[in-house]
Amino acid sequence: MKEAMELPKKPEEIGRKAEDQFDMHLQWFAAEDEGRTEEPTERKIRRAREEGKVAKSGDIASALVMLFGLLALFVFSGGIIRIITDMVRHFITVSVSGSSDMLVGFNVLGSYLLRLISPVIMVCLLAAILGNVVQVGFVFSTKPITPDFSKISLNFSRWAQKAFLSTEALFNFFKSVTKIVIIAFLAYISIRNEIPRLVNATKLPLLEAMLLISGIAFRMMLWAAILMLILAVPDYFFQRRQHRDSLKMSKHEIKEELKETEGDPLIRSRLRQRMQEVLSFSMARQVPEADVVITNPTHFAVALKWNSQTMHAPTVIAKGQDNLSMRIREIARSNDIPLVENRPLARALYDNVELGNEIPEEYWEVVSVILAEVYRLGNRAVIGASSSG
Q1: Could you give the residue ranges of the DSSP H alpha helices within 153-205?
Q2: Closest by alpha carbon to 255, among 38, 51, 33, 46?
Q3: pLDDT for 147-190, tens place per residue?
Q4: Which CATH superfamily is domain 267-386 in?
Q5: 254 close to 38: Cβ distance less than 8 angstroms
Q6: Listed range (81-95, 176-190, 240-254, 276-290) with the worst mean pLDDT
Q7: Exposure b/e, 334-354, CB count within 10 A at least 16 = b
Q8: 3-class SS of residue 249
Q9: Could you count the other beta carbons within 10 Å of the beta carbon of residue 94?
Q10: Domain boundary assignment for the chain
């Protein structure tokens, strides 16, 4: 009996099988922020800062804490040695005297330890604050420490990519290796130069031997702190770049933010339409009260009113461009308001005088000539055209 022939699989089935087989590995190399190609807006940067998301290097703060902590130990070393000497003397005296009040002993020990570590701890705390302030200024936010269970995801491939294959992971790996190599080299140089003295340390009194070893250790740590601070500078710029990349936005996000800040385009269009209606209604009431309308002749129209009893100078009661200009001229014609074509004057009044304001002094002469002509003719009609001021 012949074996049944296996039908060829459909292309989509083959593709699906291959995708299932290599799904995890392909995700390792997928673009995490696909589509986020636009630089972040100032609004997003500000909101990120309010939430505690800022560009900073933890190495700078760590290096400053180590450096200032060592300097504090050096500055307060005399007092620390005296406190240690008093503490040892006290407990030796207590042990010899035979008093064994454990509670009192713990209280005394705590008092000595507090006196020993409080100066150094305060200096280290100030150094840690300084290390953050010099990078990002004063930022206070509880958002970074607020639990957010929505961020918990059991996506192993995504975690593996971020932990081992991302740019940040590789940079941190090489940074750690560099630190280890430098510190090891410093330790080797420092100890190699002190080998003769270390060999003879066994012949020295206990205090001198301890001072020798602590001096070597202090120099090693001091140089290590300085070099760590120097290495933290490129890390700071790298963190700034990573922070900037993490805030990048997609084009859709930019559009949504524009809608939030400037309003929806449809709403803005409706507001403009409503404003046009309000202006048209206002002009329908104001233009009939004008003494003359200065035109451009088609692009601009400015309606002027003059009352010697209540006004210091003629006042602009309506003005418009293009469609509004046409509307002003129509209202003026229907109410027998004289139209005067004067292109430079119409444009100047439209640009430089707001609604309800009196015209500036430099326009008094030309406007007075026009008004005198209007009053001389007496009839409400089109006076004519003039291109000069």
Answers
A1: 156-160, 167-193, 195-199
A2: 38
A3: 666 666 666 666 666 666 677 778 778 888 888 888 888 888 87
A4: secretion proteins EscU (3.40.1690.10)
A5: yes
A6: 276-290
A7: eeebbbbbbbebbbbbbeebe
A8: strand
A9: 15
A10: 51-138+161-251, 267-386
